[in-house]
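ping. complex inputs:
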Amino acid sequence: MSAPVRLLLADDEHLIRGALAALLSLEDDLLVVAEAASGPEALAMARAHAPDVAVLDLQMPGADGVKVATSLRTELPGCRVLIVTGHGRPGHLKRALAAGVRGFVPKTVSAQRLAEIIRTVHAGNRYVDPELAADAISAGDSPLTAREAEVLELAADGAPVAEIAERAALSPGTVRNYLSSAVTKLGAENRHAAVRLARERGWV
Amino acid sequence: MSAPVRLLLADDEHLIRGALAALLSLEDDLLVVAEAASGPEALAMARAHAPDVAVLDLQMPGADGVKVATSLRTELPGCRVLIVTGHGRPGHLKRALAAGVRGFVPKTVSAQRLAEIIRTVHAGNRYVDPELAADAISAGDSPLTAREAEVLELAADGAPVAEIAERAALSPGTVRNYLSSAVTKLGAENRHAAVRLARERGWV
DNA sequence: CCCCGCGCATGACAAATGTCAGCACCGGGC
DNA sequence: GCCCGGTGCTGACATTTGTCATGCGCGGGG
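pong. complex structure:
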């Protein structure tokens, strides 16, 4: 019998985090050593406790799960990262894998499954939810170039072109060109519908 | 010693629902008699099991917590409804209370608190998270008229004026007038920023 | 080496949008 | 009875946005 798997749990919803901690603690090969309610807190906890596996919510205040994973990758290479998410957007999965995340599961799985997946990840294997993986594959790669995506993101809150141009340090005309090409590529009616589509596919 | 409080749990995230069920079952005066993963399923379960308290997530597929609460109010008047939510928008709280909901709490509370609140609600009292209540009061009432809100909602997915006009059975000019007045009232830069603001305040 | 795609820009034009004024009808409150 | 606010429409105008052509420099792949 080997030592228990030491876990870090990070989720901004106390209810979920606490419940999860309680359930996972029922498994005798799992041990929750730290909890966090935000991205920065998760990083601090990870540094302090050096867990074997970090279970991170995708959406947290401060820094999202992928950002935390990126930092952990260099600071604690031995710590495997498992992302759990409510609404899995295809693009998030891709970015997460690029950040060295070892597992990616929706919150629709049961606690038993999660415990198994934690063991899988701890053993050095990867686990990606099959449905999310299928979505990601069928959604394909983002057709947007880096600048197009950047400009589209700045357009997300409904700002006028002039403001986007200023914030991106680009000419207003250039901004309109990028927006236009992004809208065309996404087959949207206008930039706002394009933002919505790109968000749905996780491309922004 | 009275009979235990019979609970219905509804949340689309299996992980949370299961964890919650396990934690609440630790309290010996609480009994989870049914679970559901969607709005319609929650209604069906409520009809079948007639719980004392229904704990509903605000955002569920099919029908949201407030819609379910509205239906339950007439079908099962004896069933108290408690809404839990991840991101509490001020307007949601108002609509929930109008639908006869007895409790409204964010998912940031601990399971112990939740158990207490369930008892409070079951006893016939109301409970609203103080922070959410403060937000709702400071956000105030929606300054939008019924039509303004309706048109703004149709504009939410970035549809052009012509499409909004058709879907609302209004003249395009009228649609633009309503949008303009909504944008002015909300102090937004354009309709899309207005949609975002109205969403944040829970006015749409 | 040459071509192509990307980044960045300008200019011009058409279309959509935002803003304003004005008019009509209805219903509720004083 | 009168006024006011909400609803609905038109027309006119300025501004913003969307689209397209065109140009230049750069870097990577064939």
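Residues 160-162, 176-177, 179-180, 183-184, 190-191 of chain A lie near DNA strand D (CB under 10 Å from a C1').
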